[in-house]
């Protein structure tokens, strides 16, 4: 078992990244001038052939949820071991390394104790995978497959993530330019302040 702080330099500087968002550069480039691209390439070598739990924080949702890309049968089993009841399949906007077997966990910044939430999720996963001898829960999560990016700046997101937005319903507001759904969809990672040029993502509820 390995515990890795993926971007130590950014962590020390209390920044999301140094040169470029590390979430967007996998599998990286060991010869790149950009720090995160070099570190991403090193990280891929370090975690290859392992089961990976990738812990993040989010401002878009009150409760923790999981994210996968290119979900395989083994990843579905990993999802169940996390105990999460909501999963976003981000293959549509995912990184370029589908060979990595990972499950990302988004822990809410709105929680009273996000650190404790992350610890409890990780402990449940390790117990469910037989690494710790503790009680655990395995879930049967709902899957939300992202199919489209919803662009926009300075909108107030007025709907609720993972809750269906009906066709014709306003889901984001800005003076003189509201966003109205042209079809039924489920918001995923939508927020007022989470992105500079995006509101978030549209998804459909599905089975893996």
- Stretches where pLDDT falls below 50 for ≥5 residues? none
Based on the coordinates given, report the CATH architecture of the largest domain. Answer: 3-Layer(aba) Sandwich
Span between N and C termini?
A: 27 Å
> Main sheet: which strands, in order across?
1-4-2-3-5-10-9
Number of helices: 4
Give the SSE string. Answer: HHEEHEEHEEEEEE
Instruction: Report the β-strand fraction as a percent range.
Output: 25-35%
Characterise this structure.
There is one protein chain. With 208 residues, the protein is α/β, with parallel strands linked by helices. It has two domains: 7-24 and 34-42 and 51-147 and 198-208, Zn peptidases (Aminopeptidase), CATH 3.40.630; 148-197, no CATH class. It has four helices and ten strands, in the order ααββαββαββββββ. The chain has helices at residues 8-12, 35-47, 73-82, 114-128, and strands at 52-58, 65-68, 86-89, 102-108, 142-151, 156-157, 170-173, 179-180, 186-188, 198-206. The strands form two sheets. The chain has a seven-stranded mixed beta sheet with strand order 1-4-2-3-5-10-9, covered by helices on one side. β2, α3 (73-82) and β3 (86-89) form a beta-alpha-beta unit. It is globular, with a radius of gyration of 18 Å. The mean pLDDT is 89.
């Amino acid at each position: 078992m390995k515990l890795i702080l993926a971007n130590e330099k950014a962590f020390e500087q209390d920044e999301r990244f140094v040169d470029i968002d590390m979430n967007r550069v996998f599998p990286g480039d060991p010869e790149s001038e950009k720090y995160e691209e070099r570190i991403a390439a090193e990280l891929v070598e370090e975690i290859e052939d392992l089961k990976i739990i990738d812990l993040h924080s989010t401002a878009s949702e009150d409760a923790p949820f999981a994210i996968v890309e290119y979900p395989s049968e083994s990843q579905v089993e990993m999802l169940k071991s996390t105990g999460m009841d909501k999963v976003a399949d981000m293959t549509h906007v995912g990184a370029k390394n589908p060979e990595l077997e990972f499950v990302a966990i988004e822990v809410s910044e709105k929680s009273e104790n996000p650190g404790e939430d992350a610890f409890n999720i990780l402990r449940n996963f390790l117990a469910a995978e037989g690494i710790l001898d503790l009680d655990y829960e395995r879930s049967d999560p709902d899957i939300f497959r992202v199919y489209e990016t919803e662009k926009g700046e300075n909108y107030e997101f007025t709907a609720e993530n993972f809750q269906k937005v009906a066709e014709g319903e306003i889901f984001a507001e800005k003076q003189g330019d509201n966003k109205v759904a042209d079809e039924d969809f489920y918001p995923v990672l939508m927020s007022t302040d989470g992105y500079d040029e995006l509101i978030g993502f549209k998804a459909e509820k599905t089975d893996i």
